[in-house]
Write a structure and sequence with these properties.
alpha+beta; two-stranded antiparallel ribbon; single chain
Length: 104
């Protein structure tokens, strides 16, 4: 009845395909303050934190700067949008917990 395949990628076109085609399911790794929590979030298309991780690992600044230059504008824009949405989701989750605690 078909095959199951797990793919991890930073390739924007694959993320878009997986988000728009019902044959695929997407998930993203959760990061908090640019650090991985090692939790997978079903339904989330995560942003690439490769450059943030590279900085944290103290890779040479020239390498990071060059990698940043190679990002196309669409990838950069999508990353910014995802980052903003993840921040908003975290805020909503925090407020939901606060409201639930206030009811108790």
């Amino acid at each position: 009845a078909g095959a199951r395949v797990a793919v991890t990628t930073h390739f924007l076109e694959l993320k878009q395909l997986a988000s728009s085609d019902e044959r695929f399911a997407v998930a993203g790794m959760q990061f908090v303050e640019n650090r991985p929590t090692y939790k997978m979030v079903p339904g989330a298309v995560g942003e690439s934190f490769a450059l943030a991780v590279a900085e944290r690992l103290r890779l040479p600044a020239k390498v990071i700067a060059r990698a940043n230059e190679l990002l196309d504008s669409e990838t950069r824009q999508v990353g910014d949008l995802i980052k903003e949405l993840e921040g908003q989701r975290a805020e909503v989750e925090t407020r939901a917990v606060e409201m639930a605690e206030a009811r108790e």
